[in-house]
Amino acid sequence: MTTYKEIFGKPIKVLTGDPAPTPVTYTVTVANPGSGNRYYIDGVLTPTLELYEGNTYNFDYSAASSHPFRFSTASDGTHSGGSEYTTGVTVDSNITTIVVASGAPTLFYYCSSHSGMGGTALTPASPSEYEGEIWYNDSTGKFRSIVSASAWASSAPLITARSYIAGCGIQTSALAFGGSTPPYSTLTEEYNGSGWTTGGALNTARYSMAGMGTQTAALGAGGYDGPPSPGFTTLAEEYNGSSWTAGGAMTNDKAGAGGAGLQTSGLVFGGRDDTGAVATTEEYNGSSWTAGGAMGTGRSVFGSAGTQTAGLGFGGQPGDTTATEEYNGSSWTAGGNLGTALYANAGAGTQTSALSFGGNHRPPVTAQTEGYDGSSWSARPSLGTAVLQAGGAGADNTSALSYGGYTTTQTAATEEFTSSINVITGGAWSTKTNAPPIAREQGTGFGQTTNAYIHGGYFSNPTATSSGKYFEYNGTSHNAIPNTSKTIGWRSGNGSSTSGLVVGGYYYPGGSGPYANAESYNGSSWSNETAVPFAEYGFVATGATETATLMIAGDEGPTATLEYDGSSWTTSGVYPFGGYQMQMGGTQTAAVAGGGQNVPGGASTTRSDAYEYNGSSWTATGSFLQKLKLGAISGPQTAALQFGGDSYPVPSTVSYSQSYDGSVFGTAAAMGTRRKNYNSGSGTGSSTVTAGGNTGGGAYPLGTEEFSSGTESINIKNLSTS
Asked: Which of 86, 219, 257, 595 has the fewest CB atoms within 10 Å around its CB?
């Protein structure tokens, strides 16, 4: 009988599961095996862990919350003179998460409060060596192997939708600049592999530029500029990672040209001027331009890739074309033709490893993707959404980024192309079971995504009735739990499923309040707590438990920062402005808050500034991407998620999200439903649930939504005799 080993010529390993899954959640408990307290990981005494580079691991020590789970490069961590290892590590609500960095050292896990409890965590390289290996999974009874796969995955959108956008860089460090919003744009945005942040503005607004270089050393040349002198331009600008300055002007004015190379060795070719499509080529040395060899055929709005001495142009107008041309530093020659004639396609990569994606082949707009190997093009998986006039970035034909462009209007959509043994999915919100009809605006929430507590809020209608009703969300369904003593809305909420706190509020109808009362939840019942020093509604609170609460704001705009330890309230650092309707996340000693509006004030005083709290005082940090109030923040100070709210200067309830990395806010996946005044999020920056609220038009969505951060997992396939 033929065996798999004989068929594939490889040894067969027998494994209980599959190699290197991600993300993985481990349950951490503590027990005394006879030699003092020790960690048990999924019931195993201090096992040696294998945490693969690039993978995500969650260590849930909720059942051992008095034994904080941490990492160090020294055995027993700080107890042996070592320091805490924090690269890629976040801690929130008794869950320590690590995204293992490339080249991470061997680590040791330990308890930060007690010595002698931990073990070793090896950090082997990403298991690319598993590609093509055969093993037998004795849990599933299947022979399995790992294969490489290619796909596009949605990522966080641009801050501002636009088409005819210029770009450069690689998939994890890209730059988008200029474009048509419409009309002309000076906007620059930077991509870090997960979201977009605002960069320095171009000095001259224009679209259809040629882009080249890196995120911190870019060059934008030509394009079509706006008033006071609209038309084709010779302008070139250089970017240093924060601001643009004038570079040497090109010899020929043009727009829709291809771009390749670096800021100090750039190449601009083809394009269009007042006479039509042109074939001219210009080379840049960091200060001035010189003529290069002309293309074989004049063309504009086409895909491009490569370097100054190894450039590539493909597709374009006039007339849709399949033609590809290669540049060797002095002249152009024909390359292999695209499979489909098109124009307004984007490109990325090198002359011998390029991608073409999107475009138009009269009609329609296409999602088609093709890969080039230096001689011929072949079909690759299509974009998730058909688009033309998009920006493109990427190192080769296995890793690229598409952003912006035009579908039926300007779009902010971003997609990542990856070809590897890993299957990658972007962070996204998903719709879950509807909340009960009581879920309306100005409710609150606390807990974790799969163990969240949601307060109903109140109905804004002629028979408005607030409700003290609360529901538990277990990740699948909503179930009633005991009610609080007061039937009020617009309360703050924070804490865990067994140590939650709600404070303040207002009663409808009748307009009684605001209240100073506080109530805690222990997982089965409510208890009255020490009242807050002053009565308010619209408090904003955060903190892992009710005994470590941080609270700000309130409808009357107090600047006081309040802390609660489970028995008494104390006043701490003054919040930078007197306002309300802010958003806050983090812990009592490490929080981030922002947005809101001034008191007194109105919509016109809505703010975008944000601040960090260190346990005693507030300091300014990177601002929100726009002015917002009535949204929410979940997660720790260094890995938080802001979502929803009401924007300004155009009052509008929004669905988009922003991620925060401890210094700047960047774009994140949008919610499926725009909402404000909602049952603010429960969970972490990578796993959040929300429900209820107001869409801004008097509608109250019952839909529950969950946010999950992107995942990366090995592409494992079952084998069969076929």
From this structure: 86
Q: Do residue 399 and residue 512 come from a single domain? A: no
Give CA–CA dist 689/558, Å, rounded.
29
- Let me know the angle formed at the C-alpha of 101 by 98 and 104, rounded to the nearest 5 degrees: 105
Contacts of 114 (CB under 8 A, 6+ apart): 37, 67
Whether residue 198 is found in the same domain as residue 49:
no
> Do 174 and 287 fall into the same domain?
yes
Which residue type sits at 100? V
Q: Which domain holds residue 693?
A: 433-697
Counting the structural domains of the chain, the total is 3
Decide which of 485 and 339 is more confident.
Answer: 339
Q: Which helix (H) or strand (E) holds 184?
A: none
Average pLDDT of the chain to the nearest whole number: 88
Q: Which amino acid, one-letter code, is at 368? A: Q
Which of the listed ranges 55-69, 123-137, 140-154, 445-459 does the model predict with the highest average pLDDT? Answer: 55-69
The answer to the question of residue 386 being in a domain is yes
pLDDT at 181 over 50: yes
Judgement on whether residues 589 and 688 belong to the same structural domain of the protein: yes
Asked if 407 and 365 count as a contact pair (C-beta separation under 8 A), the reply is yes
Please, are residues 670 and 661 in contact by the beta-carbon 8 Å criterion?
no
Q: What is the pLDDT of residues 373-407, one digit of tens each?
A: 999 999 999 999 999 999 999 999 999 999 999 99
Do 372 and 465 fall into the same domain?
A: no
For residue 463, what pLDDT is reported?
A: 45
Distances (CA, A) of 310 to 26, 50, 272, 352: 49, 42, 22, 9
pLDDT digits 0-9 by tens, 595-621: 999 987 777 899 999 999 999 999 999
For the chain, the farthest-separated pair of C-alpha atoms sits apart, in whole angstroms, at 87
Sign of CA dihedral 86, 709, 421, 397: negative
Cα separation of 538 and 578, whole Å? 13
Give the residue among 359, 413, 451, 484 at the shortest CA–CA distance from 689: 451
Residue found under tokens 């390029």 = 354
* 70 plus 191 within the same structural domain: no
Q: Are residues 416 and 437 in the same domain?
A: no
Alpha-carbon span 365 to 360, nearest angstrom: 4
DSSP annotation of 32 reads -
List beta partners, residue 425. Answer: 711
Q: Is residue 5 part of a domain?
A: no
Instruction: Please indicate, yes or no, if residue 6 is contained in any of the structural domains.
Output: no
Distance from C-alpha of 582 to C-alpha of 538, rounded to nearest angstrom: 9
Is the pLDDT higher at 656 or at 258? 258
d(C-alpha 486, C-alpha 255), whole Å: 65
> Residue 130: pLDDT above 90?
no
Q: What is the pTM of this model?
A: 0.79
CATH number of the domain enclosing 550? 2.120.10.80
pLDDT at 679: 59
- The pair of structure tokens assigned to 215 is 């995120």
pLDDT of residue 693: 81
Query: CA 116, CA 97: separation in Å to the nearest integer?
Result: 21
Closest to 395 in 3D by CA, of 416, 367, 421, 380:
416
Q: What is the pLDDT of residue 157?
A: 95
For 606, which DSSP code? B
pLDDT above 70: residue 73: yes
Q: Is 258's pLDDT higher than 90? A: yes
**Minimal CA–CA distance to 130: which of 48, 51, 21?**
21
Q: Which residues of 90-99 are buried (b: 16+ CB within 10 A; e: fewer)?
A: bbbbbbbbbb
More confident residue, 15 or 234: 234
Identify the domain boundary among 420, 450, 465. Answer: 420
d(CA 664, CA 631): 18
Same domain, 547 and 469: yes
- Give the separation between CA 208 and CA 140, rounded to whole angstroms: 54
- What CATH number is associated with residue 41? 2.60.40.420
Distances (CA, A) of 353 to 299, 304, 534: 22, 12, 65
Domain boundary among 420, 448, 482: 420
